[in-house]
Amino acid sequence: MTTDTQAPTLTVDELAARAGVTVRTIRFYSTRGLLPPPVIGPRRVGHYGPDHVARLELIEELQHQGMTLAAIERYLEQLPADLSAQDLAIHRAVVASWAPDSVETLTRSELEQRAGRELTEEHLARLATMDVLTREAVEGAESEDGEETFRCDTGQLRLGVQLLDVPLSLDAILASREVLVEHSRGAAQELARLFHSEVSKGVPPARAGSRAWGRAEQDVKSLSAHMQPLVVQALLTAFQRSLKEELREAFRAER
């Protein structure tokens, strides 16, 4: 079911190009129930909308985290059925904070295809300021067709494109990003210390050699992998509630 206000207009080929996956992958996800069915239009052609794009990006992000399809199915089942594309994008952005950098080299046309819109020079400058992309400035960086190429953080591209239309100054957007990065790093450091401390309790001092600590490090990674879905959900819920409360208090104080 399409919950976004924009009508579904993408064919399966266009959806695949937008998300950077194959049509076969989309059909496979659909058979597993990971993607909602398309809206059937004239001539029995299926059309997809922004919620399909957002859900597909979330699925891909969860896969990048190493989650199995069964785990992804459980994760998606816990989400409300009426989430909008913006809601799904928030979930994906939180999940992406656990992911390693996903930088790709894209031509101008590939970049616009991924973004789902034409990008002006001003848009490119704003995306560059947000560290979403950088222009290639090395010899031979152009594509075979002579197109300019960009080094793009594809994990942040969708969010960056959405911020292009937000009625905030670029300074405010950058300041917001710094706040989020600073506090998320602090939370990550505290969780890492907590996980490490918990696992280290099981390593007796007499056995605290390189092999024992190597095993402990593997245990930490395993624990982190299992905790990721729970931590992501907790962070998202806590942040949404806290932000609503803070905004409510700020406007109440003004009145």
Give the topology string: H per helix, E per strand.
HHEEHHHEHHEEHHH
Question: What's the β-strand tally?
Answer: 5
| Shape label | globular
* Content of β-strand: 5-15%
Mean pLDDT: 77
Put simply, the count of helices is 10
Can you tell me the number of structural domains? 3
The stretches of 5 or more residues where confidence is low (pLDDT under 50) are 1-5
Largest sheet descriptor: 3 strands, antiparallel
Please identify the structural class as seen in this structure.
Answer: mainly alpha
Q: Report the end-to-end length measured between terminal Cα atoms.
A: 40 Å
Cα Rg: 21 Å
Q: Provide the helix percentage.
A: 55-70%
Question: Which strands sit side by side, in order, in the main sheet?
Answer: 3-5-4
Question: Could you walk me through the main structural features you see in this protein, from its secondary elements to its overall organization?
Answer:
The chain folds into 3 domains: 72 residues, Multidrug-efflux Transporter Regulator, Chain: A, Domain 2 (Orthogonal Bundle); 61 residues; 85 residues, no CATH class. 61% of the residues lie in helices and 7% in strands. The protein is built from 10 helices and 5 strands; from the N terminus they run ααββαααβααββααα. It has a 3-stranded antiparallel sheet with strand order 3-5-4. A two-stranded antiparallel ribbon has the order 1-2. Helix 9 runs antiparallel to helix 10. It is globular.
